[in-house]
Design a protein that fits this description.
Blueprint lengths: L3 E4 L3 H12 L4 E4 L7 H6 L2 E3 L2 H5 L4 E4 L4 H8 L5 H4 L5 E4 L5 H13 L3 E4 L2 E2 L1 H7 L2 E7 L1 H11 L3 E6 L5 H29 L4 H10 L4 H11 L9 H12 L8 H15 L14
Parallel strand pairs: 1-2, 1-4, 2-3, 4-5, 5-6, 8-9
Antiparallel strand pairs: 6-8, 7-8
Helix pairs in contact: 1-7, 9-11, 9-12, 9-13, 10-11, 12-13
């Protein structure tokens, strides 16, 4: 099994590091801020105080931070990933980032002769905790094949979308569609209420037709507020901003409407709430 470095130990990064460790990988990790990492250290994760210490001799280096700004802080500069990782390592962006930054990062890796993959995750906290994420990969297929078995420690499926940057593009499109679905379900229930229909009967019927994972997720979040955000409003709003920037050649009215709903929730102080909460707030 290959040795792994995980840079960024938030909700997703911590779960990724933990699952690599309990599946037999040697894991080192770094986080910008000090937290209680008892569960990770008990599982065998070696928490380092610097990025250099975390990536030293690692065969797979994975970055899992919140956004472009934090990602750049991890990758760039004399203390960053690119300056301190091994020439033989495989470098992976697991975070959901803008396509613009991922393209830039891929070029930087290529110019240094480094192997790079963009592999954003989907499955949320539940998928991360259970080690059953779906990974959305872009980059050299041969590089991906070389780490595919190792990535099985944190995932149930890997979908491949072609060249570097394409995994991230797909993830942004996916999240945009899911956000539109969630907000549309809320609108449908409001229409039902306005014409005197029983909201519970309508919600349960919509879970059957059109049905689907997102309809049920949105309805469940409306009926019972999640005790802990599986995917928060701040994160989806960020992803929608990145998705809107993917192309200036098309109009995105539904995406922009969903983005406005989430941006409004942030303005009201609800950025840390679950992304299904906008239908209740």
């Amino acid at each position: 099994m290959k040795s792994v470095s995980v840079i960024g130990l938030g909700v997703m990064g911590s779960a990724v590091a933990y699952n690599f460790a309990i599946n037999g990988h040697s894991v080192k990790a770094y986080n910008r801020t000090n937290k209680d990492f008892f569960k990770l250290t008990k599982s065998g994760v070696d928490i380092k105080s610097t990025i250099a210490g975390a990536v030293k001799d690692a065969e797979i280096i994975i970055e899992v931070t919140a956004d472009d700004e934090s990602s750049k802080q991890m990758w760039l500069g004399p203390n960053g990933i690119l300056a301190n990782g091994s020439k033989d390592a495989t470098y992976i962006a697991f975070a959901t980032l803008s396509a613009r930054w991922v393209d830039e990062l891929a070029l930087k890796c290529k110019s240094q002769g480094l192997k790079f993959l963009d592999i954003p995750m989907t499955g949320g906290k539940v998928g991360a905790d259970s080690g059953e994420l779906t990974l959305l990969a872009g980059g050299d297929i041969n590089v991906l094949e070389n780490v595919k078995n190792d990535l099985g420690s944190v995932s149930k499926e890997i979908k491949y979308f072609g060249k570097a940057g394409n995994g991230m593009r797909y993830k942004l499109i996916l999240n945009a569609l899911q956000a539109v679905h969630i907000t549309a379900l809320g609108e449908a229930i409001n229409i039902a209420k306005s014409v005197g229909l029983d909201q519970k009967i309508v919600g349960e019927a919509l879970c059957e037709r059109p049905g689907g994972v997102m309809t049920k997720l949105a309805w469940d979040g409306m009926v019972n507020a999640p005790k802990q955000a599986g995917f928060c409003v701040d994160w989806i709003a960020k992803d929608l901003r990145y998705a809107n920037d993917l192309s200036d050649k098309t109009n995105h009215p539904y995406l922009l409407t969903a983005k406005d709903v989430y941006e409004d929730a942030i303005k009201k102080g609800n950025g840390k709430q679950d992304w299904t909460s906008v239908n209740r707030l």
